Amino acid sequence: MNIDRFQSLAVRYRQLRFAVVGDFCLDRYLEIDPRLQEFSLETGLPVHNVVNVRAEPGGAGTILNNLCALGATVYPIGFYGVDGEGFELRRALARRVGVQLDFLIETASRRTFTYCKPLVVEPGQPPRELNRLDSKNWSATPFELRKKLADAVLHVGQSVDGLVVLEQTDMADTGVVTPEVLRAVAELQRARPALPIIADSRRGLRGYPPVIFKMNRREFLALIGAPENTDLTDCLPMAAAFARETGRPVFVTLAEQGMLGASPEGSFHHQPALPVRGPIDIVGAGDAVTANLLCALAAGATLAEAMEIAAAAASVVIHKLGVTGTATPQEIQPLLEVA
User: Fold this and answer.
1) The domain containing residue 222 runs over which residues?
2) What residues contact 87, with CB distance under 8 A and at least 6 apart?
């Protein structure tokens, strides 16, 4: 990509406003110094001494982090519990420049979704993650809260330049993305057909309204009923056919093979992944792709341009170890091809 073209897009990022609808969670990192290991007198088990604690927005918060890093204004639509983790999550979100918290709902009926990540940190070594400790909700989200979230989607959606829907929960209807919220998203898309809305769900996108679908290869092939071992060359026309059917672009991430995208007009594009430049951590790469696709498309990029920018952002993020990273325009630009 011509650098002047990227800079012209990046300048527009600072004028854009987005809503992120989904499961905001707290990523709590516990940094362990193995040189301070002790043994419990009571149990005889090893004791891991934590020397530093970091709290960052995770889940849908990772997409928010990336949009903020690009310079956009972001409205998170979700909930958090009346608990210590909720306090930490809201405080972490409030620290992000450009975040408007008017539609992040505190509720006593839910606990704050939390990923607790113990990390062994040794001098000169990449951080090593131990078994994660998760806190989730295992019952259905109450109807009154669902209605508030759906109303927020319709309200905020009238004035933003794009919207992301991210479902991070493993059990249906236990998080933010419920049938009520999806109906609101569908209504918003009908009212504003040109508004870019990107959806991503770890449970798959079956049953979602026709918006821009972003999936990995396994999720895409499962959605269209194709064999798991389908070759990349066959995935491309399949994606083009799917985009024609839904009337919206579709993006499929392919890990080390990059990503492919297709438009409703039937065109498709394969974007190779950038070469690895050292140790990597792939956590957060997909969310960086989502954020950069949305921001670039909202700024006026073509499908191919948005994919090239997103691939560069993913490359930046995977080389940040021990943290779910982000990519700024200044970090992305050197990785783009100069025309």
Assistant:
1) 3-35+46-335
2) none
